[in-house]
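User: Structure please.
Assistant: Input sequence and predicted structure:
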Amino acid sequence: MAIYSKAKSSPTREAIIGLGEHSVRKNYYPELQDKLETLERMKSRNQALMMAIPDVLLISDVNFHMTPFSTSSRLEASLVLAFLRDHKISQLLKEKVEGVFKSKSADVTTFEMITNNKLKYYEARFQWTDLNEVLIIIRDITLRQQMEQELRVMAERDYITGLFNRRFFESALTPFENDEAHQLTLIVFDIDGLKNINDTLGHIEGDHVIMQVAHMISEVFHDAKILARIGGNEFGVAYIDALSSEVEYRCASFQNQLSDANQLSPYEISVSYGIAHSEYLPIHLTQLYQTADHNLYKSKLLKEGSSKSALVRTLMKALEAKDFITEGHADRMSDLADKLGEALGLERHRMDQLRLLTKFHDIGKVGIPDRILKKPGPLNAEEWKIMSTHTLIGQRIAAASPELAAISDLILKHHEKWDGTGYPLKLSGVDIPLECRILGLVDTYDAMTNDRPYRNALSTDAAIAEIQRCTGTQFDPELVPVFVEILKKTPTP
C-alpha cells in the first residue's frame, strides 16, 4: 500500500497551465495577490486624481526637455503645446527650471498669454524631485486675478465716480513728502450747495451732480498725476512739475465747461476751488493741503450762493451801517482791482485775496467812533491817530475769523506807502504786499472820483494826474502806468 506525503507540493508547469495563472496566484500566493490589487487601486486612484486636477503637469530633465506628465484632455494637450511654442513663456520656464536644479528648492512665477482672443493669467510652480527632475505645475489663475482686481478697485476707487478715493490719493502723494527736486501742485474742488440739492431734489440727483462734475474734472485735468474724490463733495487733483500758468489755464477751462453745462441744466451747479504750489521747496503735504483749503474758502466767500458768503454779507452790512462812504465803494474797487490783477497775470488764489481785500480792507472802521468816521472836515492830530488804528482793528477782526484769517495781514498793511511814509509799520517798496499796493491805487482813485462830505468828486483826468504826481512816493512806479492804461480804456460812468 503506497503511502502519500501530506506536504503540499509546488504546482508543476502543466498544473499552472491547466489551472490558469490567476487561479494559482489566488490559491498559492495570496500576499502577492493583495499587493498587486493594492497597486492597481493606487494606479487607478492616481489616474483619477490627475484627471481631476485642473492644472497642467510637466516634467523637465536637466537638459530642459519638457514633456507632459499627464494630459487629461485634448484641450490640455493643446495648451501645453501653446506654452512650449511661445518663445517668451518657454524661455521663462527654462530659466526657472535651471534655477530649481541649482538650488534644489521650490520656486514660483506668473505669466500671461492670450488664448482664444482672451487674456489669461497663469501661475507656474517648480519642484525638484529625487529622480533628478523638475515637476512643473501650471494653474490658470485668471479668475483669481479678476477677483483681486475687483477688490483692488473697491479699495482704491470711489464707487460713484470711478475716480481714486482719498486713501489712494494720499498714499500716491506720500512719496513726495520732503522732496526738493520736484514741484507739487495741489488743486482742491468743492461743489457748492450740494446739501441743498440733496435736500430738495434727492440724493439720486445729488449723485448725478457729483458724477457730472467728476466727468468734467477728468476731461479737463486728464494729464494730472492723480485725480480723486477726496470727500462727499470734494475732489483733489495733483500735478508734478507743472507750470502754474498751465494749471491756471486748466482751471479756467474747467469753469468755462461748467458754465456751458449750466446753460443746459435746470439749476446751476457751482464749484469752488483752491490751488497750492510747493514752489520747489521741500514738499510738506499737510501744509500744501492747508494752503489749498484756505484758497478754496476764499473762493467760496466771494460766491453769492455759498453759505460762507453769509459772513461776507453780514460784515459788509455792519461796515455800511457804520461808514456810509463804503456804499458801492467796495464793488467799484473790486472791478478795478480785478482788471489790474488780470493785467499783471495774478494767479487765481491771489485774485481771490485781492477781491476779499477790496471788500474788507476797512472792516476795522466798525471800531472807530462815528464822530471821527463821519466828520465832514479834516481830522485833527488826535482824531487821525484814532482813525489810523482801524488797520490794526481790522487785522484782529479778520484773524479771529477762519474764513478771513488769510487776508488779516493784508488788512493791517493796506495803508503802507511806497516811500515808507505810510502806517502802521512804515513798510516801503516791495516789502509791501502786491495786493496792498494794488489796493492803494484803486482805493485812492475811487475816493478822488466820488463825492465826499468835505469835497466834490474829481474828474478822471484830474485823478490820473494826481496819481502820476504821487508815483514813487505813495504808489508803486511799475503799477501806475498799467493802471492808467486800464483807466483810459474804461468808460467813464
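Residues 82 and 145 are 21 Å apart (CA to CA).
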